[in-house]
Specification:
Helix content: 40-55%
Oligomer: single chain
Distance between the termini: 50 Å
Protein name: DNA helicase
Strand content: 15-25%
Largest sheet: 6 strands, mixed
Keywords: ATP-binding, Helicase, Hydrolase, Nucleotide-binding
InterPro entries: DNA_helicase_UvrD/REP, P-loop_NTPase, UvrD-like_ATP-bd
GO biological process, one term: recombinational repair
Number of strands: 22
Organism: Streptomyces avermitilis
Length: about 750
């Protein structure tokens, strides 16, 4: 213990020194004040890089080092959250990053396959103080003993599983299991599906996989960023500290409802509306909506021009529309072509009227005359008014809002009734994929933006030319020989022109890749991780696949927990349109979170609907059976149960239907609830969908008969220690029977009923 404490002391001394040097460099850079443009750019880059390093050093300060491996060769390596090198000429590694290949035996070595290890040591620390050691001997012929031997090798894992929850997910870097490590370190190319039931650690594995990929493919992913998609804001808040604790901050965490820049989904759909909006057919529906905005005159559009009246009828406009559609361009991009066709049609009309020779019918106008007519038409407001009516510029928000306000004619009457909504209503999560689809169909007419950019660019070049001219005029040379001057002196004009000078002084974008990706709908991510992937609709998958043209993705989920009506039933159904059957599929089969007593109860709920259901196997039993109670005074019973179940340390979740939240919250002091509840509170009130991916020491499930099977399965499996169920009416059959049975048919401990 003393030697390990000395090592930890030296390690933190090195970290403190690195932190101090980094802080000084950032402070000095920021204190530079007014400097030339190039120097400011270099300063900003330095500040961004050093600030990222400083954030990583601060984030990993807790439990920086957690292990050591002793090789049979006599070499030892300490393993930690990030790599640290000594301040010597060789930059000797003193702490090995857990993601490095040399650290892998720490997670995979066994007595049967020791991978060259003699001993594996787990260090437990409190701040900077070593509090415990656990040694696993892997070389059984080694008689050396330290007094810290762990015969089973499970002490650290069980301590982590039984520890009190904090309302924030902790990393599992100290206790990664072999099956999890293989998934974490899988190659980044292609689609990897990780299927696992409650408590199998699939979310933690996905997050550690993100950290590993950022380490292993740093150059690639630093440019393109990693996107992690979660089911709801509460979940993202819950997992938000994991990657920083592993030294990684360049990741974008978002829900599907946050993946359209400028829009955040704040409203909720009913299940029917969500299912309709999520169907794959909605892509063609929106395409039809766009086509209908490319109108024909009814019956004609008249335009006054130069004391004459021009008429655009159905036939003329139809020809222009059909020719424009042949280009197969997005609506707003194609408008430029439609404008050209209409202007040409009107130009021909005017030219024929004023230029036809009355004797032989030939046209007397030359090319310059035709150009003048076209230019005059292009300045006629009535022409542009007609074009706007026939081929309007559209935004995704306007198109989708108008469609949802009047969906009749595009979907069935039943579906129209389900999705109809006022134009001014807030967006829902199911609306965001529709907005993204609309953006693809519409494109962006960027002619004005390009014109403004060109004008700004020309201004910058003109300014740069002026700077160079002043520089050239103010030259002073000591040469007397003119030829020698011309042959040996290089002025600014010789090595740089105004264009390049302007480029060097353009303001650069120093936002991180994740920050830039969040603001860019068309961003292509280096890798995408989707948690609760089974819940996403076909339309949501279209959105995500656009952001992953290389199909480098990790999908995490459990079909048994599918609750969304728009969710897809199988991985093949999800992926076939994009990668056919070319994806890897792996399963996590061990439940580390849920005690067997609770898991048996939850599995019985699913087996009542699916008799062949096989849940993950729980690794532990607490000896505490879940209980079920009936009541005729629900608020009072909930208050009493909360007092009973609230742990001395840790967190309690009350999971209840959303419509009961206000009534229950009124009886619970200090409870947090709402769309984004604070999960660090001792007691939190959630609905079943909000509880997805979360875990608590104790859970109280209220009115289980109001849940669907998947929602109830999720709610029952959130607890790590104790579970209670309260109801006022009938119970689901599996809970009413009180005799859950595990998959092997042996009787399980019964449910305690009161």
């Amino acid at each position: 213990m003393r030697l390990e404490q000395e090592f930890i002391d030296g390690l933190y001394a090195r970290v403190d020194a690195l932190r101090g040097v980094t802080e000084v460099s950032v402070t000095d850079a920021l204190a530079q004040g007014n400097t030339p443009m190039q120097a400011r750019l270099e300063r900003d880059v330095l500040v961004a890089e050093r600030s990222g390093l400083l954030a990583a050093l601060n984030a990993v300060d807790e439990s920086l080092c957690f292990g050591r491996i002793d090789l049979t060769s006599g070499v030892s390596h300490h393993i930690g959250r990030i790599g640290i090198r000594a301040d010597d000429t060789e930059h000797t590694p003193i702490l090995i990053d857990w993601r490095a290949q040399v650290a892998r035996p720490f997670y995979l070595a066994t007595g049967h396959t020791p991978m060259g290890l003699r001993r594996r040591r787990h260090l437990t620390t409190d701040g900077r103080r070593v509090t415990d050691l656990h040694d696993e001997l892997l070389d059984l012929g080694d008689a050396t003993r330290t007094g810290h031997e762990d015969p089973t090798g499970d002490a650290v894992l069980l301590a982590a599983l039984n520890s009190a929850r904090t309302g924030r997910m902790s990393d599992i870097v100290q206790t990664i299991q072999a099956e999890q490590d293989r998934i974490i370190r899988a190659p980044h190319r292609g689609v990897l599906v990780v299927e696992g039931g409650p408590g199998t650690g699939k979310t933690a594995v996905a997050l550690h996989r993100a950290a590993f990929l950022l380490y292993e493919y740093r150059e690639l992913l630093a440019k393109r960023a990693v996107l992690i998609v979660g089911p709801n804001p509460a979940f993202l808040g819950y997992i938000g500290e994991v990657l920083p604790s592993l030294g990684e901050t360049g990741v974008l965490l978002a829900t599907v409802g946050e993946l359209f820049p400028g829009v955040k989904a704040t409203a909720a759909d009913n299940p029917r509306a969500s299912a309709v909006k999520g169907r794959a057919e909605m892509a063609e529906v929106l395409a039809e909506v766009v086509r209908d905005r490319q109108a024909l005159p009814d019956p004609v559009i008249t335009i006054e021009h130069d004391r004459d009246v021009l008429m655009l009828d159905d036939g003329l406009v139809r020809v222009a529309r059909d020719r424009t559609r042949e280009a197969k361009l997005p609506h707003n991009v194609a408008r430029e072509y439609f404008e050209g066709h209409i202007l040409n049609t009107l130009t021909d009309m005017v030219a024929e009227r004023i230029g036809t020779d009355p004797f032989d019918g030939s046209n007397l106008l030359d090319a310059a005359d035709i150009t003048q007519i076209r230019d005059e038409l292009a300045e006629n407001r009535e022409v542009w008014s007609a074009i706007d009516r026939l081929w309007p510029r559209l935004t995704p928000q306007r198109l989708v809002a108008d469609f949802l306000a009047e969906p009749e004619g595009y979907v069935s009457a039943e579906d129209a009734a389900a999705i109809r909504r006022p134009v001014t209503r807030a967006w829902t999560t199911a609306d965001v994929p529709l907005l993204d689809e609309a953006a693809e169909l519409l494109g962006e007419d960027d002619r004005l933006a390009r014109a403004l950019a060109d004008r700004e660019r020309n201004t910058q070049v003109a300014y740069a030319q002026g700077v160079l001219d002043v520089s050239y005029a103010s030259r002073t040379y000591e040469f007397e020989d003119k030829d020698e001057e011309d042959s040996e002196v290089l002025s600014a004009h010789h090595i740089i022109d105004a264009e390049r000078f302007a480029e060097r002084h353009e303001e650069e974008d120093h936002r991180s890749a994740a920050e830039r990706a969040a603001a860019d709908r068309t961003w292509a991510f280096g890798h995408i991780i989707v948690d609760e992937a089974q819940e996403l609709s076909p339309m949501a998958w279209r959105l995500l696949m656009r952001r992953s043209p290389t199909r480098s993705m990790t999908l995490v989920g459990d079909p048994a927990q599918t609750a969304e009506a728009a969710g897809v039933g199988s991985w093949e159904e999800i992926l076939a349109p994009y990668v056919q059957d070319r994806f890897d599929h792996t399963r996590l089969a061990v439940n580390y979170r849920t005690p067997s007593e609770i898991m048996d109860m939850a599995a019985a709920v699913v087996r009542a609907e699916r008799p062949g259901f096989e849940p993950p196997s729980s690794v532990r039993s607490t000896g505490v059976r879940p209980w079920v109670r009936a009541t005729d005074d629900l608020p009072s019973a909930v208050a009493e149960a909360v007092a009973e179940l609230t742990p001395a340390e840790g967190r309690l979740a009350v999971i209840a239907p959303r419509e009961l939240h206000r009534k229950l919250a009124a009886r619970l002091d200090g409870v947090t609830a709402g769309a984004e509840p604070d999960l660090t509170h001792t007691v939190v009130l959630l609905d079943p969908r909000q509880s997805k991916g979360l875990e608590f020491d104790s859970v109280l499930v209220v009115e289980p008969a109001r849940y669907g099977t998947s929602d109830l399965y999720v709610a029952l499996t959130r607890a790590t220690q104790r579970l209670g169920v309260l109801h006022t009416g009938e119970l689901p059959k599996a809970l009413a029977d009180g005799e859950p049975h595990p998959a092997d048919g042996t009787p399980a401990p019964g449910i305690t009923k009161r």
